[in-house]
Amino acid sequence: MAMKNKSLVFIGIIFLLTGSLTAKEPLKDYSFIRGVCHNLTPDQETLERDLGFMQRLQLNSSRVWLNQRAYESNPEEYINRVLNYIRTCNKYGVTVMPVLFSSGGFPALLEKNARAGCEKYVTAIVNALKKEEGLLMWDVCNEPNCNDYYRKAPPAEQQKRNDEIAGFVRYFITYVKKIDPVNAVTVGHWIPKFCGNTSDLVDVISFHDYLETRSRVEESYAIAEGYSKKYNKPLINSELCCIGRSNPYDMAIQIADEHNVGWYVFNLIISGGWSDIHGLVYPDGTIRDPASIAALFGFYRKRDLNTTVKVLPNREEHAEKAIALLETVLNGDFDEYPDVFGIAPFKSKRSSVRPLGSRPPVASVDDILEAAEYCANLLEGAEMVPMWEPPTARIETWRKMTDEDKEKARGEIRKFAYDLALQLKEWCELF
Q1: Domains of the chain by residue range
Q2: What does the alpha-carbon distance between residue 218 and residue 252 come to, in Å, rounded to a whole number?
Q3: Burial of 184 by CB count in 10 Å (0-12 exposed, 13-18 middle, 19+ buried)?
Q4: What would the pLDDT profile of 140-186 be if each residue is shown by its tens digit?
């Protein structure tokens, strides 16, 4: 199954790069989609940076939010901005699924005096983009039922409000199709059960999944696949992956691939907004979790204890050597520095700071940090410490300080280094 999925991804990428799947009639299968949720970026440099990340990650589609108010404030400028976005994406081999409305617009969007403005906005956007090579499909509304108007409605009112929202969305599905009878139309529903509101009208059935366990995610797919089979329409998952909702990337993507369903992870850049629980890449190109990136390429964390090969960081006595080195540096016996490697490493500058009495100079803060990194690399490589704040990140922060500030932080650094050694002792059972 994994090899089959990877083949589909490769074929999908090739087709998209050649433009053979864009601006065409709806497809029967969108399992090739390996996409990411995105926003219109503030400038061209940022856009191309983000698309460079997408390209490196072999992501082939962008689900991007549009904004009616932004359009109405300056229609011409906004249309040009959206056109530039889709054309730049196309240059990088990334197709685009624009989202016309969002759930936060309800109930205001339901007002009678709002309809004309909505129609004008949709008409302008659809006419501007419908012939663009990089357009994959339209998403009429993001999560129509995920808002306070529906979720906090009194029980007696919920069905009425659901019908009102569904009526609005169904109207604009038909409206978009009249303007653009060629490109596919979908609606990104909050949870699969709401797909029933639009499955008969859309070309592609789309649902979101942020559920907490594998069994619950599987139940979600069963419901969504039920609508797909009933209406004989392709299925995609247009939002998945949320660390803060117990829906980690490697779990959510693995299940999507097992079901042969194309997906859009939420989201690309780790910066602001929802980035404390979402995101793949920092603006500087670094990453938060290698497992998330590996999942994009079909590699998932092993969870079978019967076949897991655990890391043995002390196999060549490196844990013992690291601890011995750190203990020596912390004890201040620098003149009797142990040759733990056989090559006497880490012999650098000594601190000019002398403790009370006539003891010899103590190790420099840089030497303490060097020895701490030796322990930290073993702990991190063997995944023996939480990686939300890697020990090596703290070490690098201290290293960037001035010598004066390092000395001020000496006590904190010593305690940190000592704690690393204790953790390494515990995990390697070096008592």
Answers
A1: 2-296, 318-428
A2: 10
A3: buried
A4: 999 999 999 999 999 999 999 999 999 999 999 999 999 999 999 99
Instruction: Report the b/e string of 294-328 with b at 16+ CB within 10 A.
Output: ebbebebeeeeeeeeeeeebbeeebbebbbebbeb
Please tell me the total number of residues recorded for the chain in this structure.
431
Instruction: Please write the tens of the pLDDT for every residue from 357-381.
Output: 445 557 889 999 999 999 999 999 9
Neighbours of 75 (CB within 10 A): 15
Match 């008409």 to its residue by tokens: 123
Q: What is the DSSP string of 341-377?
A: SSS-TT--PBPS---SSSPPPPBPHHHHHHHHHHHHH
pLDDT digits (tens, 9 = 90+) for 13-27: 444 444 444 546 899
Q: Are 278 and 242 in contact (CB under 8 A)?
A: yes
pLDDT exceeds 50 at position 34: yes
Please report, for the chain, how many H helices and E strands are present, in that order: 15, 8
Taking domain 2-296, whether its CATH number is 3.90.550.10 is answered by no
**Terminal CA-CA length for the chain:** 46
β-bridge pairing 205-209 and 184-189: parallel
Give me the residue label for tokens 């012999």: 347
Q: Quote the CA–CA distance of 120 and 64 in Å, as a whole number.
A: 20
Q: What is the pLDDT of residue 363?
A: 82
CA distance 403 to 431: 35
Cα–Cα distance measured from residue 414 to residue 362, given in angstroms and rounded to the nearest whole number: 12
Q: Assign residue 27 a region: left if phi > 0, alpha if psi is -120 to 50, beta otherwise?
A: beta
Task: Quick: pLDDT tens for 103-139.
Answer: 999 999 999 999 999 999 999 999 999 999 999 999 9
Alpha-carbon span 225 to 232, nearest angstrom:
10
pLDDT digits (tens, 9 = 90+) for 179-200: 999 999 999 999 999 999 999 9
Contacts of 225 (CB under 8 A, 6+ apart): 235, 259
Q: Which residues pair with 263 in a beta bridge?
A: 34, 237
Amino acid sitting at position 307: T
Who contacts 339 (Cβ-Cβ below 8 Å, separation ≥6)?
none
Helix (H) or strand (E) holding 421: helix 410-428
| Amino acid identity at 3 | M
